[in-house]
């Protein structure tokens, strides 16, 4: 039942986006910008403003993000060097395994699994993991040639963080948002979750899949098997309990992120490998996430 009630709806919307792209070749950049600059910031802002923000929870999840990212990156580097991969292949492995799809895939998945009860945690996870996605992923894709300041500047331009900062300031100063403003923002935010999945399906339809069995097996095992174990262990270490623990483990056990593919295309960090890992982990996550959901229940 978990597979039918939670996993199947996610993949049906992804399939809708995939089919739409194959049939009509829609304007992908325009839809992506609409999601990035309008619908997703609206979702984040409205979700945070309608709930009590627990700053202690934000700090705990921030620590989880740092430790989780550092451990996976260290494992990816060690595996790459141990298997004598070249620099570009090591970069592709890191991009495919350290960066998970907490947004397009993870946020809708967490919402289907836990509803509005888990939305505060899933929003915070989404926002926090966009930090390494917008900084570390760029540095990895560029092979360390670009300074960290450039990557941080790129992250600062992402409007999601502006929405979070504004919500935190208003909450800290106890300033309510007038209903005539909050209602349209909330309505715009409701379009974000289905649009994320449609965009993921469109991106998969545009992906040129090339098969590299050894690399894809390693990347898939790290992303769908090892990553959940690390998340589980860190939740125990940090004392994350109940619903928070479930949302964190589920959302950080999602397939490889799509955004690093754009970085790898831009900087030539084996985009063929990254694209293959995204496609493979997305398909196989239907089984791994179903099993994980049973364990979390």
Properties at a glance:
297 residues; mainly alpha; 15 helices; 79% helix; globular; transmembrane helix; membrane; transport; cell membrane; transmembrane
Structural account:
This protein is mainly α and 297 residues long. It has one domain (54-175, 210-296). It contains 15 helices and no strands. It has helices spanning 2-24, 28-49, 55-82, 87-97, 106-114, 119-134, 136-141, 148-156, 159-172, 179-190, 192-206, 213-238, 242-251, 259-267, 271-296. Helix 5 runs antiparallel to helix 6. The longest helix has 28 residues, at 55-82. The two termini are 12 Å apart. The model has no long low-confidence stretch (mean pLDDT 89).
Number of helices: 15
As for the number of domains, it is 1
Molecular shape: globular
Question: What is the percent of helical residues?
Answer: over 70%
Instruction: List the secondary-structure elements in sequence, H or E.
Output: HHHHHHHHHHHHHHH
Kindly, what is the distance between the CA atoms of the first and last residues, rounded to a whole number of angstroms? 12 Å
Estimate the mean pLDDT confidence: 89
Beta content comes to under 5%
* Strand tally: 0
Q: Low-confidence segments, ≥5 residues, pLDDT <50? A: none
Question: Measured on Cα atoms, how large is the radius of gyration?
Answer: 18 Å
Kindly name the structural category.
mainly alpha
Give a quick account of the main beta sheet: strands, pairing sense, barrel closure.
none
Quick take:
The chain has 297 residues and is mainly α.
């Amino acid at each position: 039942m978990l597979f039918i009630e939670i996993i199947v709806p996610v993949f049906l919307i992804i399939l809708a986006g995939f089919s739409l792209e194959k049939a009509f070749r829609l304007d992908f950049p325009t839809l992506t910008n609409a999601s990035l600059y309008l619908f997703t910031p609206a979702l984040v802002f409205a979700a945070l403003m309608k709930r009590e923000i627990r700053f202690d929870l934000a700090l705990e999840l921030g620590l989880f993000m740092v430790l989780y990212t550092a451990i996976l990156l260290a494992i990816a580097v060690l595996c790459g060097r141990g298997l004598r991969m070249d620099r570009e292949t090591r970069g592709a492995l890191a991009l495919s395994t350290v960066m998970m799809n907490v947004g397009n895939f993870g946020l809708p998945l967490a919402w289907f699994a836990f509803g509005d009860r888990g939305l505060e945690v899933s929003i915070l996870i989404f926002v926090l993991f966009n930090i390494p996605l917008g900084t570390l992923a760029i540095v990895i894709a560029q092979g360390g040639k670009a300074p960290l300041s450039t990557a941080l500047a790129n992250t600062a331009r992402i409007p999601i963080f502006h929405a979070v900062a504004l919500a935190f300031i208003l909450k800290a100063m106890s300033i309510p948002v007038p209903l005539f403003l909050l209602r349209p923002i909330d309505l715009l935010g409701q379009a974000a979750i289905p649009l994320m999945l449609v965009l993921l399906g469109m991106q998969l339809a545009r992906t040129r899949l090339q098969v590299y069995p050894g690399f894809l097996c390693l990347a898939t095992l790290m992303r769908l098997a090892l990553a959940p174990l690390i998340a589980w262990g860190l939740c125990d270490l940090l004392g994350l309990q109940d619903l928070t623990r479930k949302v964190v483990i589920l959302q950080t056990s999602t397939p490889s992120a799509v955004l690093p593919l754009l970085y790898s295309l831009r900087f030539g960090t084996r985009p063929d490998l990254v694209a293959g890992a995204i496609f493979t982990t997305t398909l196989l996550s239907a089984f791994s996430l179903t099993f994980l959901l049973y364990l979390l229940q």
